[in-house]
Write a structure and sequence with these properties.
The protein has one domain. By secondary structure, it is an all-alpha fold. The strands form 2 sheets. It has a two-stranded antiparallel sheet with strand order 1-4. A two-stranded antiparallel sheet has the order 2-3. InterPro entries: ABC_transp_permease (IPR001851).
C-alpha cells in the first residue's frame, strides 16, 4: 500500500522536476535577452560595477528566498519575513549596544528569529491556522516589537568592530563576503532539496499531504521545521544587513516579502505547494534585479518600477495557476 501511495507522488515529483527545468531554462533565456538589450541601451550596464551592485542587492534577500521557496513547496507562505529580518537586526543591535559582543548578539538575534518561526509553526500545525493568516499576524506583531524595542528610532551601530562589519562590507579578491555567504547557502540547500532523502518529504507533503500521511510521513513536523527554517534564514539575513549598514532601523524590510515571494513564484515555486527549486527562485531574484537595474539606468520613475514588478508577479502567478489547473 505504501509503495502504491509513494509511486504517484514520485511520478508527480519527476514531472515537477521536468517542468522546473523548463522554467529555469526559460528564465535564463529571458535574463540573457534583457542583458543583451540593455548592453545597447546603456553603456553602464555591462560593467563589473553594475553587476556587483546587482549581486549585492539581491544576495542577502536571496538567502531569505531560499527559506521561502522551501516553505512554498511544503504548501505554506510567510508574509512576516521582512519583519523578522528587521527584528533580528534590532535585537542584535540592541544587545550589542547593551554591552554584548556582536557575534553573541547576532546568534541570539538569529535564535529569536527561529523562535518566531517555531511560534508560527505551532499555530499552523497544532492550533490549525493556515500559514497566510498566521504569518500576517506575525508580520504585524513582530514589526510592533521592533518599534517598541527601538522606540521608533534607528539604532546607530557605527562602533561595530571591523571584523564584524567585514561580513557585510568586506571582500576577498574583490568578491564581497556577502556574495560568498549567499552562494554557500544556495549551494547547500539546492543540493539538499534535489538530493537529500529527508527533503523529499517536503515535496510529498506539499503535493499531497494526505497521501504523505498515509505513507508514514509526519507532515506536521515537516511543516513545522520548514517554517522554523524560513524564519531562521530571515534572521541570518538580518544580521548580515546589520553588518552591511552599521545600523538597525525599525522600519527596515517593509514590503520585502513582495520581492521574496515574487522571486520564488517566478522561479517556479507553486503557491499550491509541491513544486519549486532553489536555483529557479534565485533566477527569479536575478530577473527582478536585472529589471530594477535596467529601469534605473533608463531613468524610469521609481513609481513605475513598483508597477512593473507588480505586473511581473501577477503574470508569474497567472502562469502558475494555469499550469496547476492543467496538471489537475
Amino acid at each position: 500500500m505504501h509503495a502504491d501511495i509513494k509511486a504517484p507522488s514520485e511520478a508527480r515529483r519527476i514531472n515537477f522536476a521536468r517542468l522546473a527545468s523548463m522554467r529555469e531554462a526559460g528564465l535564463i533565456v529571458i535574463i540573457l535577452a534583457l542583458c543583451i538589450a540593455m548592453s545597447f541601451a546603456s553603456p553602464h550596464f555591462l560593467t563589473w560595477g553594475n553587476f556587483r551592485a546587482m549581486l549585492m542587492s539581491f544576495s542577502i534577500e536571496g538567502i531569505v528566498v531560499v527559506g521561502m521557496t522551501i516553505l512554498l513547496i511544503v504548501g505554506g507562505i510567510d508574509l512576516s519575513v521582512g519583519s523578522v529580518v528587521c527584528f533580528s537586526m534590532v535585537v542584535s543591535g540592541a544587545l550589542f549596544l547593551a554591552g554584548l559582543d556582536p557575534w553573541t548578539a547576532s546568534l541570539i538575534g538569529i535564535g529569536v528569529s527561529a523562535l518566531i518561526g517555531a511560534a508560527m509553526g505551532f499555530f499552523v500545525t497544532v492550533v490549525g491556522l493556515n500559514h497566510f493568516i498566521t504569518s500576517l499576524a506575525a508580520m504585524v506583531i513582530v514589526r510592533g516589537m521592533c518599534l517598541v524595542i527601538t522606540k521608533g528610532t534607528p539604532l546607530s551601530l557605527f562602533t561595530l568592530p571591523p571584523a564584524f562589519k567585514a561580513i557585510g562590507q568586506g571582500s576577498f579578491n574583490n568578491i564581497p563576503y556577502v556574495i560568498m555567504i549567499f552562494v554557500v547557502v544556495v549551494a547547500i540547500f539546492d543540493f539538499l532539496l534535489r538530493r537529500a532523502t529527508a527533503f523529499r518529504k517536503v515535496f510529498y507533503t506539499g503535493s499531497n499531504e494526505k497521501a504523505a500521511q498515509f505513507s508514514g510521513i509526519k507532515t506536521r513536523q515537516v511543516k513545522f521545521w520548514v517554517t522554523v527554517l524560513c524564519s531562521t534564514l530571515a534572521g541570518l539575513a538580518g544580521v548580515i544587513y546589520m553588518a552591511r549598514f552599521g545600523a538597525a532601523t525599525p522600519t527596515f524590510g517593509a514590503g520585502m516579502e513582495l520581492n521574496i515571494i515574487a522571486a520564488a513564484v517566478i522561479g517556479g515555486a507553486s503557491l499550491n505547494g509541491g513544486s519549486g527549486t532553489i536555483f529557479g527562485a534565485i533566477l527569479g531574484m536575478a530577473l527582478l534585479s536585472v529589471v530594477t537595474s535596467s529601469l534605473i539606468l533608463l531613468d524610469v520613475s521609481v513609481y513605475w518600477q513598483d508597477m512593473i514588478k507588480g505586473c511581473i508577479l501577477l503574470a508569474a502567478v497567472s502562469i502558475d495557476h494555469f499550469l496547476h489547473r492543467k496538471k489537475s
